Here is the input.
Amino acid sequence: MSDYNFAYLDEQTKRMIRRAILKGLAIPGYQVPFASREMPMPYGWGTGGVQVSAAVLTPEDTFKVIDQGADDTTNAVSIRRFFEKTADVAVTEATAEASVIQTRHRIPEQDLRADQILVYQVPIPEPLRFLEPSEVETRKMHALEEYGLMHVKLYEDISQHGAIATSYAYPVKVEGRYVMDPSPIPKFDNPKLNMAGIQLFGAGREQRIYAVPPYTDVVSLDFEDYPFEASKADHACDLCGATDSYLDELIVDDSGKRMFMCSDTDYCCSRRKAGHIGAQGVPYAEDAA
Amino acid sequence: MNPLLNVGGISKFYGHRIGCKDVSFDLYPGEVMGIVGESGSGKSTLLNCLAGHLAPDTGAVNFDTRVDGMRDTVTMSEPERRMLSRTDWAFVHQHARDGLRMNVSAGGNVGERLMAVGARHYGEIRDQATDWLGRVEINADRVDDRPTAFSGGMQQRLQIARNLVTGPRLVFMDEPTGGLDVSVQARLLDLLRGLVREMNLSAIIVTHDLAVVRLLADRLMVMKDGHVVETGLTDQVLDDPQHGYTQLLVSSVLQV
Here is the structure.
């Protein structure tokens, strides 16, 4: 252990954040303002998520960090190390073993259990922001449940692209009341928002925390004649052969050769360990050697 | 017949200065009332108080709601008032930019009020939007263009379509023809007159242009320094003005 207080933040700050989290859980989808602290990382790198994680972590927790589905990118590695150093918690890459998972842009493919907490990093918490620049006005719209404007955005999508082209940060209505930005997760993940685990959303720069309690009704907004569709690339993972997971598309050489692979690296690895092989994949043991 | 709108003793002060003082009148269904006066006479203050954009210091604005009958809109709760302002009321701003979403297509602009009251069928919203664009003489092929690509007159007509699409019963207009050239003004007035008659709208039109009220308004209210100095039938007030200020106003109109 180091000279840091447990999980970097001082106890008063963690109390303040926990209060905001509890309020958020009590009013699903409502953006609770909180006094966001300076963190030793730039805004946009997950300062909100880190503060929420710091407030919910206990010494017994096992911590996992995902960045765009991957456990091994800069952002994920440095946040994981940060809590290893300041909280001395166990860390893991396996979704099933983690008790607190901080994520950016993805929900793990594997269903979460009731004893797991998913912490999202949120850049812009206000779903109405790009339609209505005034914070005073958007708060009023939330308070009075005036969400017609959200559909104007979807209308514009259909009129310009022939379909709802919004593919990430797709607006949802939580428990029939608040319209919420689920952070920039692909809309493929939207159906998973209705889950057994607790979901906490932290926006550091914008100083907002919101939450979705377990088994809360989360509905993606749509039109009767243009229903919501959880879309993904129409392909199977080239490494593990999965057809049910969200895929990243990679261009692998100068002649434009493409490759699709699971964005959830833990899901892909565990499938390969279990013996699944995709079109361009090799058995797991050989790859490791 | 019961009045649609009953205004009693509306006053609004800006500190010690008078915005408008002790204004009362009734407006009946299908009636168009003009409010004229020079700049700073309190016309717009009065209109904003009536439409709920400003809270008046004293007085009541009773509106004949569809469900509950006469209700005072000054004391009703904000959600109710905002609901009213996107269903039974409409507000046409002087500058179309204030009343339109400039970064949303014409169809989206017209459809917004429909979606705000719960329309969730894209095809129907679009059909209604296209229909309304036609009624204000905007070509159907402009439905996906943004208002920034429209001329001033088209923007103003789009604003009118956007306001009337939910079939309001009362329209507030603040200088609807301001800033438009005369031939465009004439077409807009023609259009407005047609729509008002066709939909049996009641309207309150604030303007400093006497020709506009001559064409559109049944009744006229003349304001000066926040006070109503003369009221009456439009033709009566304009042809036989009694108050000194009205006489000045009428005689100030340039004859071509």
